[in-house]
Amino acid sequence: MSVTTNPADGIRLSYSIAGSDEKNAPDVMLVHGSALSSSVWRGFGYVRALGDRYRLILPDLRGHGRSDTPHEPDAYAMDRIVGDLLAVLDAADVERVHYVGYSFGARAGLALALAAPDRVAGLVLLGGSARPQRGAMDAMFFRGCVDVLERDGMEGFVREWERQRQEPVDAATRAAFLANDPLALAAYFRRSDLEPGIDDEALAALDVPTIAVAGSEDHMRVDDTRAISRAIPGARLAVLRGFDHATTVAALPEVLSVIEPFLEARTVR
Questions:
Q1: Following CA atoms 121, 233, 83, 93 in sequence, which dihedral angle do they give, to the nearest 10 degrees?
Q2: Which residues neighbour 126 within 8 Å (Cβ) at sequence distance 6 or greater?
Q3: What is the spatial distance between Cα 95 and Cα 118, in angstroms, rounded to a whole number?
Q4: Helix/strand/coil (H, E, C) string of 202-234?
Q5: Centroid of chain to Cα 2
Q6: For 200-240, what is each residue's pLDDT tens digit?
Q7: What is the fold of 2-133+199-265?
């Protein structure tokens, strides 16, 4: 793992580079979702599947994985997250990148593309949303999830989430969740609840090739994904039948079937 720093506030960010070491290999940044880390891209097989053709940049978002874990909610404002992503791109010596983001990673990708469109060659948004985020964490996990994090830690959080889901989470997700600092994650959840979202006028001005992907059973995000595809000029939509929010990112063959042609068509070798 390598480390760089966001110059705005000194937060240290962990990232790794994997995949092709060919000089002209296209760069792809893979950005995880809430309570996960960059390890999920290996766990779900993306690094193995894409690494023969692409140079992969895998950051841990602040508050996650091996990056710094501030406990103040304001540290997780979206402009700080965008600054983190730019710092990682600069440290990895990447001028323009194909961006693949899941859930919160997708929302961060939209913010990055709006703030620095010259740095983004294409956007792949898995289970993303541009809507205001109030109540989103309770909807995604369970009501009162922040309080459980602060009181019972990550073990208690995962235990309650599994009870509410009435089924266990997969091994890769469980491992990533349990590695988190619960107070940092609680601060991130509280700040996320304040995110105002991105309005359609801003999305309509976005000039970055985009594909928006969601599972048909992702009842929280499939409509948001459709809305993104309608708002961004020329954006494509792919709905993967039978998958919900948690299982979409793990559906490697189905995800690759729609994102690989998108990446390939926009790759100059």
A1: 10
A2: 100, 101, 102, 103, 105, 106, 213, 214, 248, 249, 255
A3: 8
A4: HHHCCCCCEEEEEECCCCCCHHHHHHHHHHCCC
A5: 19
A6: 999 999 999 999 999 999 998 999 999 999 999 999 999 99
A7: Rossmann fold (3.40.50)
What is the rounded distance in angstroms from the CA atom of residue 33 to the CA atom of residue 112?
15
Distance CA 232, CA 167 (A): 36
Q: What is the pTM of this model?
A: 0.93
Decide: 36 and 177 in contact? Cβ < 8 Å.
Answer: yes
List, in order, residues 6 or more apart from 10 with CB less than 8 Å away: none
The tens digit of pLDDT for each residue in 155-179 reads 999 999 999 988 888 887 888 888 8
Contact predicate 110/196, CB 8 Å? no
Q: Tell me if residue 64 falls in helix, strand or coil.
A: coil
SS3 106: helix
Beta bridge partners of 5: 12
Q: Look-up: residue for tokens 């010596």?
A: 93
Nearest to 106 by CA among 79, 76, 128: 128
The CA-CA-CA angle for residues 257, 23, 96, to 5°, reads 65
DSSP string, 79-102: HHHHHHHHHHHHHTT-SSEEEEEE
Give yes or no for a contact between 206 and 232, defined as CB atoms under 8 angstroms apart: yes
SS3 state of residue 183: helix
